[in-house]
Amino acid sequence: MAMHFTTLVAVVCATVCGAYSQSIVFDDAPGMGRQFDGIGGLSGGGATSKLLVNYPQEQRDQILDYLFKPNFGASLHILKVEIGGDVQSTDGTEASHMHNSWEENYQRGYEWWLMKEAKKRNPNIKLYGLPWGFPGWIGQGTRSPYVNVSMTADYIVRWINGAKVYHNLTIDYVGIWNERPYDISYIKALRATLDARGFQNTLVIAADEKWEIATDIQADPALAKIVHAIGCHYPGTLSDPDAVSTGKQLWASEDYSTFNDDVGGGCWARILNQNYVNGLMTATISWNLIASYYDNLPFYGDGLMTAVEPWSGNYVVETPIWVSAHTTQFAFIGWNYLKHDSGVGKLPKGGSYVGLVNPTWTELTIVIETMTHNHSLCVRPPLPAYNVEPQVVTVSLAGKFSSITEMNVWYSKLGFDGAKDILFEKKDPIKFVNGKAQLSLGLDEVITLTTMTTGQKGVYPEPPPSQPFPLPYTEDFESYKPPQEPPNLAQQFGVYEVTKLPGPHGNVIRQLSLQAPIVWCGGSGPADAGNKSLNIAGSRNWTDIYVAVDFQLPVINGSLGAFVAARVDEGGCEAFAAHGIFLFAFPDRYIVTNDLARTKTLKEGSLAFEAGEWHRLGLLVQDGNVQGSFDNKILFNMTVPALPVSGFAAIGTDTFGLADFDNLQLTGPSEGRKIMSKHLHSKSLYFEKEHH
Ligand SMILES: *[C@@H]1O[C@H](CO)[C@@H](O)[C@H](O)[C@H]1NC(C)=O
Ligand SMILES: *[C@@H]1O[C@H](CO)[C@@H](O)[C@H](O)[C@H]1NC(C)=O
Ligand SMILES: *[C@@H]1O[C@H](CO)[C@@H](O)[C@H](O)[C@H]1NC(C)=O
Ligand SMILES: *[C@@H]1O[C@H](CO)[C@@H](O)[C@H](O)[C@H]1NC(C)=O
Ligand SMILES: *[C@@H]1O[C@H](CO)[C@@H](O)[C@H](O)[C@H]1NC(C)=O
Ligand SMILES: *[C@@H]1O[C@H](CO)[C@@H](O)[C@H](O)[C@H]1NC(C)=O
Ligand SMILES: *[C@@H]1O[C@H](CO)[C@@H](O)[C@H](O)[C@H]1NC(C)=O
């Protein structure tokens, strides 16, 4: 008989085909495997949803539907978010609810908003918070979050309480310190503080790194009682025997992190099944939820879908959304996996299958994947070689399931080498005769067989076409409500909020970090760049550009200096080493450097201004020359440094400390030249200095 290996063919098994195929059995008689804890996405760690917030409402709602709406798209079960700590946490900085010990605010950043949007669509979605870093005051001068564990526990539980009080959000899970050392006395202090404040139902996941906490759990019954699930990052589908023997639920509490093309989709399909098949992991959370950060920032595009153009409304629903749907739309938190060899396992010729059953054992969902090695590589860890071949399998339903006569079929095949993707298509139901049906499996396929009659491939009209960042761009921040984050400005160090000042400036953006935070990344992090704040905008690809901004350094707790910059070539954890063209203004001088850290001065001259005064800084890069201006007078005209050839526009401060910015202006070079030549006719500062 002819076998079609490239398309799904379900044939009722005649005696003759039995010889061709091996059986995979789904049987409840041996009992159930572990409880399924869900599939999730991670917003933050960091600033990965930055650009989403500023989308036009219509497209933003569509995107949120693709992510969270049940029976529509990824229909996620878990939303994990960063508990902002004013630190760079991969693609930017997220705001802490307590920049300083003497204040707190639960309206900052975008994670509150995102959690509410998720809950609005799916009231059953579980929420999970985890810090990447902490504001500096938590360390009491040490830059460790564990120097006073009750202080840190208080700080974290305040965030959980703020979620409840200000947003009516229940935080289901809380973690320790992302991919950084855990401290057992802190975990105990956290549990005690949660209990004391009425959050007995907020469960602790530890420790969001590898499996090493398993041995501590084995040795310490009190700790064992506290840890609800062991969360491991990038487990490569394998769990540690020590972790298994704790009896705790095991989670891939951060995974994926792979560019969201078809190989990314293949990675996601393989790990969603095999994290349980190989490693008994019952939850898998994608870093990140949505790639919504500027082009060329680290791990660009490593989300379930992409939305990087708030100005155009363009977004792209990528393959991982539909791969998620194969599981998320047909199995839910509280369902159970079947046991290995009676509903969970590897396919005879490569690939894997999992069977999931609802709590009353009346519904069965089977997810099968046949991802080939090269088409399912994840960013990490390395994937050992293996083979997958086209195959015919007999799906054999036993026990309670043997009475099933038909299952609904959802089918995807990732298209490589020019082949078109088939994504989450509903096929004709598959018939079972005496509990048996044959399935012909090709390569790079995901197939869901389910008794569930729900499920939908959600669709919206094509979003508006892609557009570059709109120039000229001016921003006076008047349309934003404090303490919103400035739209389109992606803070990399320090933390910026729209702030209302008395007087003519009205809304400005203010840098609010007063001291170096307890960092997550970047070696000694901002300290390496002399505790500078950095806030980027536009595109990593910008070459010639004009950037100007009003600034003031407040008298109380002010930063020592402010800068504008062009061609800034780094964001993320390495941003302390960013190169570009930086014009710093200090009360007594200006300095032009080729890097954020100010390791080499290209040009300097004098200035005279005081803290508490507003001034305007400008920088024009055009045709091989750079001109700087202060209060609309030209400061210098020099040759553009050879490198970098392109980069973001930026503003920032020279040390932590308050600084205000207003009337940000970004234009293309020709308009910038017109502005600069007007300045030429004003009294030139540098002329005055050089000819006096
Ligand atoms: C630890 O922090 C708490 C506030 O959360 C404070 O009451 C206590 O005095 C601090 N302990 C020390 C040793 O600083
Ligand atoms: C808070 O959320 C719960 C569901 O979690 C809902 O039942 C309740 O109505 C909400 N309360 C308010 C004031 O919105
Ligand atoms: C997988 O990729 C490797 C490295 O690029 C290549 O050598 C190998 O031939 C590929 N395998 C298949 C089956 O395409
Ligand atoms: C940055 O600030 C921290 C404390 O806030 C300090 O320990 C460190 O030395 C500073 N780094 C530089 C380069 O000034
Ligand atoms: C920026 O340049 C890179 C490399 O040439 C390119 O891949 C990317 O698409 C460009 N991004 C934008 C937004 O133009
Ligand atoms: C300035 O810092 C001090 C602590 O060093 C603090 O008490 C005060 O509230 C701060 N003022 C402002 C405006 O930030
Ligand atoms: C800057 O210097 C270049 C090269 O000397 C010159 O061509 C250009 O006109 C100067 N621009 C201004 C605004 O002075």
Please outline the helices and strands.
Elements: E1 9-11, H1 15-18, E2 22-27, E3 32-35, E4 38-43, H2 57-68, E5 78-83, H3 111-121, E6 126-131, H4 149-167, E7 173-174, H5 184-196, E8 203-209, H6 213-219, H7 221-226, E9 227-233, H8 241-245, E10 249-256, H9 262-277, E11 281-287, H10 319-328, E12 336-338, E13 344-346, E14 352-357, E15 364-369, E16 391-398, E17 406-413, E18 422-431, E19 436-441, E20 445-450, E21 473-475, E22 490-493, E23 496-500, E24 507-511, E25 533-537, E26 545-552, E27 562-568, E28 579-586, E29 589-595, E30 601-606, E31 615-622, E32 625-630, E33 633-639, E34 648-653, E35 659-667, H11 669-681, H12 685-690
Parallel strand pairs: 2-16, 4-5, 4-11, 5-6, 6-7, 7-8, 8-9, 9-10, 10-11
Antiparallel strand pairs: 1-19, 3-12, 12-14, 13-14, 14-15, 15-20, 16-19, 17-18, 17-20, 21-35, 22-25, 23-24, 24-35, 25-34, 26-31, 26-35, 27-28, 27-34, 28-29, 29-30, 31-32, 32-33
